[in-house]
Amino acid sequence: MKGKIRDTVSKWWVLVLVATLALSLTSCGKKRSSWLTSGGGYECDGSMGYFGVSTVPYGQGLYQVRLVVFQPDEEGDIVSVTLTDSYSGAYRNLINGLVLQSNKDIVVGVITEDELATYDTISITPAFEGVWANQVADKYNDCELPYGY
Asked: How far is CA 88 from each of CA 53, 93, 112, 115, 120, rounded to the nearest angstrom?
């Protein structure tokens, strides 16, 4: 009798564990996939974490640049978010000193339509002092900048 009870309890624990894991994975997946299907923008993964990037019209010829922090490499990392042009090397720092927290949607700056046409990448690096182009980042994400959604 003890053997049957022990086997039943063991099977239930495994079932509960599998169900819990499945539910936690599907809820994260739904958030990310609903963000993409709603025209959210692009997702990118790198050594700073897993992010979403979007540009949202914000008045006449202006766009909000939004960063969705799905999962930072380390909660509380302090980062810089910079627009870059991969062809010319031009850049514009949007924010320096942003603290990363999971599941946050953050407006990191407002840009013009000309800037949206000029810059093609968002670079997420550790916060820095001095000139952005001179930093040597050991961790970074380079995300494609979506052209207006």
From this structure: 22, 15, 18, 13, 11
What CA–CA distances, in Å, run from 18 to 5, 7, 14, 26, 124? 20, 17, 6, 12, 35
Among 125, 134, 46, residue whose Cα is nearest residue 81: 125
User: What span, in angstroms and rounded, lies between the C-alpha atoms of 48 and 31?
Assistant: 20
First to last CA, the chain: 64
Handedness of CA 90, 94, 96, 99 (dihedral sign): negative
- Token pair of 75 as six digits: 């909660």
Is the per-residue pLDDT at 18 higher than 50? no
Q: Alpha-carbon distance 149 to 97, whole Å? A: 27
> What is the full DSSP assignment across 46-90?
ETTEEEEEEEEE-STTEEEEEEEEEEESSTT-EEEEEEE-TTT--
Report the C-alpha gap between 98 and 105 in whole angstroms: 12
Task: Summarize pLDDT for 36-72 with one digit per residue, the tens.
Answer: 444 568 999 999 999 999 999 988 999 999 999 999 9
* This prediction's pTM: 0.70
Q: Measured between alpha carbons, how far is 40 from 59 in angstroms, rounded to an integer?
A: 18
